[in-house]
Amino acid sequence: MVPVSKVTDGTYMIDVQRGVPTMSVTAYLVMGHRAALIETGPSVAVPLLLEGMRQVGYDPTQLSYVVVTHVHVDHAGGVGTLAQALPQAQVIVHRRGARHLIDPSRLIESTRQVQGENFDEVSGPILPVAEERVSAVSGGDVISLGERDLRIVDAPGHAPHHICIHDSRTNGLFSGDALGILDQGGERPFPVVVPPSYDLEAHIDTLRRIRELTPSVLFFSHFGPHHRVKRLVDMVEQDIEAYGRIVLEAVKDKASLAEIERGLEAHRSSLGIHYDVEADFKQMIAGFITYFKRTDPGLEWAG
């Protein structure tokens, strides 16, 4: 059995996060007169998604839309495989990510660099999606499910091809990685800052837009929904600003990677911050450094 739960009226959480050994997400089936699946995880998660939909009495062959918040493999690696299984479904993705679903060669290469040469043996292949099946969207576009609308929110920062999705029925926001990772019962999201295209300024602007929407619930793409919206958004902003400042000052001081890690850990400890997931400071440092080098080409750091 796939862990499936009803989280709001007409919205089901299919938790493939814990059923797949690596690089996976929590997916959501959003139902109106038509239905959309938000997030796919990697290809290895696709059989679990199909089974999860069947468990709630929904026939996957009726699915109208597959929506991904961005094209990183843990969120969208399975799009091509799912599209083959469900030829009637249209794939919705940010306009800057569409080409990577149609021709995933660059996505495959970047995943190989991060996850290793044989990543597809664990997470499954990244397959292309036919161009006519892909609908490229940007902020303000609306996906109508009949009796409820999903409005696209442009949400760069974590990645330039990142969107959030606002649900008109529940006033909920499917947040992707814009607010990081927060396990069930957790108190503070861990910000997901990753190279090569992280943008701190854009991330802060995205957090501002999320506040202005005043959603009632945040549907995290890792581990499920949370209701303490303003507090969680404030925490993420505080953390990315503080960690970014520490990394920038350390780079200017020619600190080593180990020294920067210790600086981030010391800041976390001094404030009593606890994360319920592993704090991957190495990845965060790499994300911040690529951003600061992009904004200041004269900045040097030997690593």
Structure report:
It is built from 10 helices and 13 strands. β8 (142-144) and β9 (149-154) form a beta hairpin. 36% of the residues lie in helices and 19% in strands. It has a single domain (4-234), classed as Metallo-beta-lactamase, Chain A. The strands form 2 sheets. It has a 7-stranded mixed sheet. It is an alpha/beta fold and 303 residues long.
Order of helices and strands: EEEEHEHHEHHHEEEEEHEEHHH
CATH T-level topology: Metallo-beta-lactamase, Chain A
Euclidean distance between termini CA atoms = 46 Å
General shape: globular
- The total count of helices amounts to 10
In CATH, the homologous superfamily goes by the name Ribonuclease Z/Hydroxyacylglutathione hydrolase-like
Question: What are the key terms here?
Answer:
globular; 13 strands; Metallo-beta-lactamase, Chain A; 10 helices; about 300 residues; alpha/beta; 7-stranded mixed β-sheet; 6-stranded mixed β-sheet
Topology:
Blueprint: E1 4-8, E2 11-15, E3 26-31, E4 35-38, H1 46-55, E5 65-67, H2 73-76, H3 79-85, E6 90-94, H4 98-102, H5 105-115, H6 119-123, E7 134-137, E8 142-144, E9 149-154, E10 163-167, E11 172-176, H7 200-213, E12 217-220, E13 224-226, H8 229-252, H9 257-270, H10 281-295
Parallel strand pairs: 4-5, 5-6, 6-7, 11-12
Antiparallel strand pairs: 1-2, 2-3, 3-4, 8-9, 9-10, 10-11, 12-13
Helix pairs in contact: 7-8, 8-9, 8-10
Give a quick rundown of the structure.
This protein is of the alpha/beta class. The protein is 36% helix and 19% strand.
